[in-house]
């Protein structure tokens, strides 16, 4: 793994003109290989800016390393999203929670049935929700693991290629799409879930012990599952379509100037 203390002296010297004493330079833990040439990628906390140096210590002009900047930036952004978001999604107890939800739904049908026709229709819609969430949770965990493995290999080799960037990007897309599918099935079945909860609650009023217990067990899901009352529900359709059906690379093109504007490489 490349760190500031083990950089070659010519790279340290080449870096000095590009930061001041109030900034803390840091180097990406691997070099980037693009079109046969090696590059170092630096950041300068607290400034949100970067610098790209060639392997020989020379500083390419801004116009020479646009593609390299996008590759390095995107690989870095993907890693940050896996660390700060994906890791939390992967370790969330969704598998256990939705195995429990599946069990609750099964008990509702067994212990409170036969269900009224409209409740049975709602139940037939909702009964598949736990399996869909569990399936997509496995995909999230798998995507995070693949990203972590790729990152470890790149760090050990001290090298990231454009193929590595493509793989890391694909793992991020897998993770995001799985999360979106989890939320989407929840909001699409909101009305049916509400009908089932109301039915169980109505049985509780008749001093039905099974209904009382099942109602208590349903409450966390009624409260926490994604629904139209969520703060982001208003933009959900647009976000879902963008995440599931759009070309993420094409979407990023309009924001490329943000990457370019943050480069300290000299303009020609």
Give a structural overview.
The protein has 268 residues and is of the alpha+beta class. It is 64% helix and 10% strand. Strands 1, 2, 3, 4 and 5 form a 5-stranded mixed beta sheet that branches. α3 (94-112) packs antiparallel against α5 (129-157) and α3 runs antiparallel to α8. 26% of the residues are buried.
Class by alpha and beta content: alpha+beta
H/E topology pattern: HEEEEHHHHEHHHHHH
Question: Can you summarize the main beta sheet?
Answer: 5 strands, mixed
According to DSSP, the number of beta strands is 5
- End-to-end Cα distance, whole Å, is 32 Å
Backbone shape = elongated
Helix run count:
11
Rounded radius of gyration (Å): 25 Å
Helix content: 55-70%
| Strand-residue proportion | 5-15%
Mean pLDDT: 93
Report the uncertain regions: none
